[in-house]
Amino acid sequence: MAKIVKIFETLRNNWKKSVFGTVALVYGVDYLMYSYESRQMMRAYCEAAREIGEAPMPVDCRPRHITVILNPAANKRKAKKEFEEYCAPLLYLAGLSVNVVVTGKEGQARTLIEKLEEATDAIVVAGGDGTLSEAVTGLLRREDGTNVARKMPLGVLPVGKTNSIAKHLFSQSADDRIKLLAEATMAVILEASKPLDVIKFQVLPTDGNEGGKPVYGLAGLEWGAFRDTNARRDKYWYFGGLRGYAAYIFAGFKGEKTITWNVQANMEYSPPCNGCSNCYEQRLDLHPDQAQSKSWWSAFGKRQPGSVVPTVDYRGKVNEDCRTVRKLDVATSDFSLISSNVSKEHNKVPQLQVSFGPEHVSYNDFVKEGWRRENGEDPSRPCKILAKEVKLWPVQAVKHQDNATASSTQDNIPTGPKDIEKWISIDNEDYEVKAVHATLLPNLVKMFYSPHVIIK
Ligand SMILES: CCCCCCCCCCCCCCCC(=O)OC[C@@H](O)COP(=O)(O)O
Ligand SMILES: Nc1ncnc2c1ncn2[C@@H]1O[C@H](COP(=O)(O)OP(=O)(O)O)[C@@H](O)[C@H]1O
């Protein structure tokens, strides 16, 4: 008894240490439980992959060959370790022939795929949204790109920091990182694929400036105060898991200096179309299957699960509305243009969703809305427009291009603060604000996905 009393006395006299110890213990136990459960789960996935690998194959059949493009820098350089721990073992157990190409610098995923000659059955991106967008850009910049993209499946192993496409492809596993990685790897192994939309971003030529080559994205474009705040969240790392919430509080205070609170753009857009004679030329998804080309990827070309081939001849269809061009001047602090790939609604007609919030946002509303988004709720932006094509001329950016220096640019922004952020995100990659033409290319790439979770 005396011993117990003594223990209590010690605890009371050192209450700070006791509280700390208890918290550490709770976290420790929680961590051990999670890592134990993860190990059990990985064992089940390995078992499933091994069964597939051990299934007998016809004698004349070569093992499936996949090319993995791994971005080791993704997710603060943890990508390679995660790939090796949770993805690679499953791929090898399933008997795939895997060629892992590690990128050395930014932009290399794109150039690697642009120049890829190796015969392969699938390209698998191990990285975040940025690497995936680079890969799609590389693929579609190839001469044979659009033809290949419709047939050769792409995979994603979500080892990045932001994996929004993967989280939509594997929504049932989105909350558990290890499960998400394992499910995505199993999808590559099991080969079920579905078509995704692509958005083509082409910089609009301005006096004397060519537009350059297009960039392609699968998720979309984000611009404004919420994007800027989100891009800064890691500055508040010491808040741990609450850094996102903290970012909104601080951005709201200091934001006048560094955050895009308000910019205007002139917008032109055309409404969505289900396919007609007017958009036929541009809409590759409406075209019948091209003759088999003898290109690098088709060396093993017998496998083409789920090719997207239309059954209707759209050249005879008339849709008067398709040619319509509408104009709108937008002023907002929060702008987004997304594809259906990352929208929760199921849309029959292919469409881009443009949405934007009010012109001015109060500190309270900003933090409230930011916190809502941190809680995983959908952004609330009262204005919504559906389109198949959008041209945006940011009022600020046009002036920015006229005057080469950044300082003279800012003099031209009537309501804008100094040092305004001039960046937007496309698939979570940063780009300078410029006049841009965004075009929806429906069902252009095929991606591995899982129709249901493989291991519960
Ligand atoms: C009120 C609402 C305002 C909304 C305004 C949003 C304006 C967004 C402008 C986004 C511009 C994005 C341009 C991305 C494309 C881009 O910058 O491509 C660069 C390529 O060519 C160069 O590629 P490369 O030749 O490979 O180096
Ligand atoms: N070897 C590398 N070193 C540094 N950056 C790289 C390398 N390979 C790719 N990148 C770049 O890393 C950036 C982030 O990649 P991303 O896939 O979006 O991961 P994350 O979600 O972790 O940010 C991309 O812009 C990509 O071009």
Spell out the key features of this protein:
36% helix; binds (2R)-2-hydroxy-3-(phosphonooxy)propyl hexadecanoate; alpha+beta; 456 residues; nucleotide-binding; Rossmann fold; binds adenosine-5'-diphosphate; 21% strand; 6-stranded antiparallel sheet; Diacylglycerol_kinase_cat_dom; ATP-dependent diacylglycerol kinase activity; 14 helices; 16 strands
Please provide a written account of the structure.
- Its cofactor is Mg(2+).
- It is a peripheral membrane protein.
- It comes from Thrips palmi (Melon thrips).
- Its main location: mitochondrion.
- InterPro entries: AGK_C (IPR045579), ATP-NAD_kinase_N (IPR017438), Diacylglycerol_kinase_cat_dom (IPR001206), Lipid_Phosphate_FormReg (IPR050187), NAD/diacylglycerol_kinase_sf (IPR016064).
- Strands 1, 2, 3, 4, 5, 6, 8, 9, 13 and 16 form a ten-stranded mixed β-sheet that branches. A six-stranded antiparallel β-sheet has the order 12-11-10-7-14-15.
- Mean pLDDT is 87; it is low at 299-303 and 397-421.
- The protein has helices at residues 2-13, 15-54, 74-77, 79-93, 108-115, 129-141, 145-149, 164-169, 177-190, 225-231, 243-258, 363-374, 395-402, 406-411, and strands at residues 65-70, 97-102, 122-126, 153-157, 193-203, 215-217, 220-224, 263-270, 326-332, 334-338, 352-356, 383-387, 389-394, 423-426, 429-432, 436-448.
- The radius of gyration is 25 Å and the shape is globular.
- Among the domains are: 32-52 and 62-196, Rossmann fold (3-Layer(aba) Sandwich); 220-287 and 317-396 and 421-426, no CATH class.
- With 456 residues, the protein is of the alpha+beta class.
- The structure holds (2R)-2-hydroxy-3-(phosphonooxy)propyl hexadecanoate and adenosine-5'-diphosphate.
- Adenosine-5'-diphosphate (ADP) binds next to helix 3 and helix 6.
